[in-house]
Amino acid sequence: MKDYLFEKLYECTKKPYQKYFKKNEAWKIDKTGLMNYPENSLGHGLGNFLYKNHFDMQEKLEDHDIIHVLTNTGVSVYEEIGMQYYLFGNGKRSLYLFMVILSGTLFYPKQLKYFLQQFKRGKQAYPFHYLDFSKMLFIPVKSIQQIFKI
What is the per-residue pLDDT across 129-149, written as a single tens digit (0 to 9) for each? Predict the structure, then answer.
């Protein structure tokens, strides 16, 4: 039930977040086009992630799914919250991130140990949350993970 509520909260806030807070341009590619990138590249990895999870590209939110690929984070509700903890540890600061962390901690207090582990993982990695991933789609995922200690 709380997973359902959390997902509905996300759906209600996604459109205003995209419209008013995300200033970046939407990527001019879809998941089919991503599959044309070299097999171990970030672009191909993103395409695989989208197909595997039955997702489509979300306009102006493409970086979110890239973070899933780079950090090997799942897509369950508590894993999504954990990814925000990871990004907080990595230095990202945004109102949306704080809202997810606060509400996620309240909704999932039993996952606090996992959330703190994700925070520590993010802190150990070199900051990468701010990169323009649209220009990195040909780079192998493993190379990015090694360079940034992800």
Answer: 999 999 999 999 999 999 999
